[in-house]
Design a protein that fits this description.
Blueprint lengths: L1 E5 L5 H10 L3 E5 L10 E2 L3 H5 L4 E4 L4 H11 L8 E4 L5 H13 L3 E4 L2 E2 L1 H7 L2 E7 L1 H14 E8 L3 H29 L4 H8 L7 H4 L23 H18 L4 H15 L11 H6 L5
Parallel strand pairs: 1-2, 1-4, 2-3, 4-5, 5-6, 8-9
Antiparallel strand pairs: 6-8, 7-8
Helix pairs in contact: 1-5, 3-4, 7-10, 7-11, 10-11
This protein binds nicotinamide-adenine-dinucleotide.
Length: about 290
């Protein structure tokens, strides 16, 4: 296929490289990042999009996606698919999809989980919203860039799945960290706490797979001085998107709201920026109730 790829940062660059390595013709554009091996550089987003069968975007947020879509959609050939893999607000995802479909294009929102490691290894999970026809066009590309693609329904549902998942993740990480900090103060050994919780009803991905306590459980960013992994500011971005969506849909999400507040404090007023999101444990460790 001919692919236009716009946004070649931490995630986009390895994804585009994997597509080029698999034999696709990839034309890339980024405002600052260099072109990865095998990707030819275009002068603009519109140039990268022209003649492409699929145009992939991997951008920082919804406002930038809307601007790029305004430029790129008129340049795309009829029947081509605009595949946005960024994590953005549900409203922007639906607005861009409507705009693309009105111009005779297919549109998919397909945010990912798996991080930079998953992008490099081609093992991302895609959560996809959009039509069956557009999903079928993009399916071979999902297979190259990822290990799983779940079709979640119409446009916007990929973003909805992503923010619901990450709201659970943020809330359970905080719960796991505060429980470890309480256990410390009660004189309960961390290994004993892990051995009990990881095989009891408090178990979770954050305890069993990504344990925030150094030296406990499988290897995780806690064992590497809390270098990300998944940075606290990216968790904050996703929690804010979940609360923006909850506000728009009139959904009561008190735990998600509190998690967003705690990550905001951690990133904006404490030392959380640039640290893994599991560094909430040393944060709680150093605090009392007051
Ligand atoms: P990044 O900042 O490294 O990359 C974004 C790229 O977009 C940058 O290179 C930037 O120059 C480029 N860009 C900005 N405006 C542009 C424009 N108008 N035209 C062309 N290029 C433009 O971010 P990232 O880590 O690659 O993340 C990309 C998206 O993936 C985000 O939405 C993020 O939330 C999501 N995501 C990231 C991770 C992760 O672990 N990094 C995991 C899952 C999802």
């Amino acid at each position: 296929m001919k692919i236009g790829f716009i946004g070649l940062g931490n995630m986009g660059a390895p994804m585009a490289k994997n597509l080029a390595n698999a034999g696709h013709e990839v034309s890339g554009f980024d405002v600052t990042a260099p072109m990865p091996d095998g990707v030819s550089g275009a002068e603009s987003g519109a140039e990268a999009a022209r003649d492409a069968d699929v145009v992939i975007t991997m951008l920082p947020d919804g406002a930038i996606l809307r601007r790029v879509a305004d430029e790129v959609i008129p340049a795309m050939k009829p029947g081509a698919v605009l595949l946005d893999c960024s994590t953005v607000d549900v409203e922007s995802a639906r607005a861009v999809a409507d705009q693309a479909e009105a111009a005779g294009l297919g549109a998919l929102d397909a945010p990912v989980s798996g991080g930079i490691g998953g992008a490099e290894a081609g093992t991302l999970t895609f959560m996809v919203g959009g039509s069956d026809a557009a999903f079928a066009t993009a399916a071979p590309l999902f297979e190259i860039m990822g290990q799983k693609a779940v079709h979640c329904g119409p446009s916007g549902n990929g973003q909805a799945a992503k923010i619901c998942n990450n709201m659970i993740l943020g809330v359970t990480m905080i719960g796991t960290c505060e429980a470890f900090a309480l256990a410390d103060k009660l004189g309960l050994d961390r290994q004993a706490m892990f051995d009990v919780v990881s095989t009891s009803s408090g178990y979770s991905w954050t305890m069993n797979v990504y344990c925030p306590a150094p030296g406990i459980g499988p290897k995780s960013p806690a064992d590497n001085d809390y270098k990300p992994g998944f940075a606290a500011e990216l968790m904050l971005k996703d929690l804010r998107l979940s609360q923006q969506a909850a506000e728009a849909a009139d959904a009561d999400t008190p735990m998600g709201q509190r998690a967003a507040e705690l990550y905001a404090e951690f990133v904006e007023s404490e030392d959380g920026r640039g640290r893994d999101f599991s560094a909430m444990l040393p944060r709680f460790e150093g605090r009392g109730r007051g």
